[in-house]
Write a structure and sequence with these properties.
Peptide Deformylase; 2 helices; alpha+beta; 29% strand
């Protein structure tokens, strides 16, 4: 496994839409392993393939207290409610902002073995991470939800996501 460089805000790849994964071959499995290791090393709750320069619809989630997992071709099929959350991003270090996210999120995807799964999350970090990482697959960053850059808060490294 390898630690991959995380692209930073301003890199045009972060604004591109990712392509669907058509085969869960060895290179995809290696990418998933590398993404999990990279996310963990960066102390993140999630990481999307575009953040490591791969325009593929793959995300990994690592919620404290749970085993990290990968979702391939994830899409949100249902969301409801609205809440304000403090959010940051490994591609935009040193900043956080309060943004609106859904309370309830249902996502469908393939797991890394190619089985179709559904994940339901409600009012927790998992719901937030699913929306955040799937946004990355569509070239959307959390700062796009801000009305003004004045809403960004500077944070120290220990307060990072």
């Amino acid at each position: 496994m390898a630690i991959l460089p995380i692209l930073q805000f301003g890199d045009p790849i972060l604004r591109e839409k990712s392509k669907r994964v058509t085969a869960l071959n060895g290179s995809v499995q290696t990418l998933i392993d590398d993404m999990i290791e990279t996310m963990q090393r960066a102390n993140g709750a999630g990481l999307a393939a575009p953040q490591v320069g791969k325009l593929l619809r793959i995300i990994v989630i690592g919620i404290p207290g749970q085993e990290p997992f990968a979702l391939v071709n994830p899409e949100i099929v249902k969301r409801s409610g609205e809440r304000i959350v403090s959010e940051g991003c490994l591609s935009f270090p040193g900043h956080r902002a309060d943004i609106k996210r859904s309370v309830n999120v249902t996502c469908k995807a393939l797991d890394r073995q190619g089985r179709e799964i559904r994940i339901k999350a409600s009012n927790d970090l998992l719901a937030q991470a699913l929306e955040h990482e799937i946004d990355h697959l569509n070239g959307v960053l959390y700062i796009d939800y801000l009305e003004s850059e004045d809403q960004l808060q500077t944070v120290t490294a220990s307060e990072q996501p």
